[in-house]
Design a protein that fits this description.
The protein is an alpha/beta fold. It is globular. The two termini are 18 Å apart. 49% of the residues are buried.
Length: 423
């Protein structure tokens, strides 16, 4: 049994001064049991906690660490940029360069604006959509998580699913009444909402690869349907690619599915591990933002030069090292090894590139309602045993795993064996 005494002491101190002892709910390990683990440092695919326990990191800080922990190129960019100034409250060259890189790589994006989190990015994109269309209502999907803005905490995923809560206290009904919710993978449900509300709908927002409440792979035909119906009713289609943007490829899921949304949101990878968010789209839509137009959005640390430098360095490495090809090979290897370990069990491995989800059920879900609680319970029941054997999995069965370029087939093989041994 691993020793977690220092983590336990830190947690006891934390709960006295931080609600739940954590700054983001799922970190509290409530779903998987036991006290949370506090990390001390990381290197490549490895993280080490305050008790000197070493783990193969399959959480990857929930997605941004595509190059693993402490890549030298990112550390160098942070050192250079921070010694020149941590923040200015003005524009910087790195901000312009990162914006140019995103516009170059992501076809639907002609202009982009930076914020400090994925929540801000989605909140701002929806405000732009409402301002551009002059309409109030939006359609979102059951189980898709788009951050913690009040009107988006309706049938959301992620930590809300972990705690079995379909919505959040503290959100007035009036805030949520313009949020219409449909099931994923159901054309009729969306059609019915448009039949009822039609030209009152400003936008449809979806994770084109929902990855915050399981990994719910959508049919290309369904996403094409969403593109067509939003065009028909002159609504905007928003792809939330905070997770998948620059993770599944240069153009994200939009490029993978060959669909051009009107607006896209980004986060995680484009900050190189630093706090970041961004949203972008066609220039005529984005130019409704102040100071060009009447839609207001601002942020003291938006476009922070240190974060921008880290994002640029990350994209430089990905391009130079052909990282997406390498990540696909690692992902395919890990998927194959897990399937071998699961041969005698009702379990599935769902994967897109370097995103992997353990689904303890035979049928592959496309909707949140199709995820079996028994499968989530199975994942949660093995989490601590896997942790004790040196593999750090996300502390919720609804969450996905992330592979970095620094993982090796040997480490992934070991991790698969550890997981298989605990089934």
């Amino acid at each position: 049994m691993a020793d977690y005494r220092k983590s336990k002491e830190l947690y006891e101190r934390a709960v006295k001064v931080i609600p739940g002892g954590v700054s983001s709910p799922v970190r509290a390990f409530k779903a998987v049991g036991g006290d949370p683990v506090f990390m001390d440092y990381g290197a490549g695919p490895i993280i080490v906690d305050v008790d000197d326990n070493t783990y193969v990191d399959l959480c990857g800080a929930w997605g941004p660490l595509i190059l693993g922990q402490c890549p030298p190129e990112i550390l160098l960019s942070l050192a250079r940029s921070s010694t020149s100034g941590i923040t200015f409250g003005t524009g910087s060259s790195a901000e312009v360069e990162l914006a140019e890189r995103i516009v170059e790589k992501v076809k639907p994006v002609e202009k982009v604006r930076f914020v400090s989190s994925g929540t801000e990015a989605v909140m701002s994109a929806i405000r732009v959509a409402r301002g551009y269309t002059g309409r109030d209502k939006i359609i979102k999907f059951d189980g898709c998580y788009h951050g913690h803005a009040d009107y988006l905490l309706v049938n959301a995923g992620s930590g809300l699913a972990t705690f079995g809560t379909p919505s959040s206290a503290g959100v007035p009904e009036d805030f949520a009444r313009n949020t219409l919710v449909a099931e994923l993978d159901d054309e009729n449900a969306v059609q019915q909402l448009f039949d009822e509300h039609g030209y009152d709908i400003a936008a449809v927002i979806i994770e084109p690869i929902p990855a915050n409440n399981g990994l719910l792979i959508q049919r290309p035909e369904y996403l094409t349907f969403l593109r067509n119906i939003t065009k028909k009713y002159e609504s905007l289609l928003i792809f939330d690619e905070v997770i998948t943007g620059f993770r599944v490829g240069w153009g994200g899921a939009a490029e993978m599915y060959e669909i051009e949304p009107d607006l896209m949101t980004f986060g995680k990878v484009i900050g190189g591990g630093m706090p970041v968010g961004a949203f972008g789209g066609r220039h005529e839509i984005m130019d409704i933002l102040a100071p060009n137009g009447p839609v207001y959005q601002a942020g003291t640390l938006s476009g922070n030069p240190v974060t921008m430098a880290a994002g640029l360095a990350t994209l430089d490495v990905i391009e130079r090292e052909n990282s997406y090809s390498h990540l696909e090979k690692l992902g395919a290897f890990f998927e194959r090894r897990l399937i071998e370990e699961f041969a005698d069990y009702d379990a599935d491995v769902v994967r897109v590139g370097s995103i992997v989800w353990l689904s303890f059920q035979e049928e592959r879900p496309r909707r949140a309602s199709q995820i079996r609680k028994s499968g989530i319970d199975k994942y949660n029941s093995i989490h601590r045993a896997v942790l004790n054997e040196g593999v750090y999995l996300p502390p919720s069965g609804y969450e996905v795993m992330f592979i970095s370029t620094e993982h090796t087939e040997e480490l992934l093989d070991d991790a698969a064996q550890v997981i298989g041994a605990e089934l």
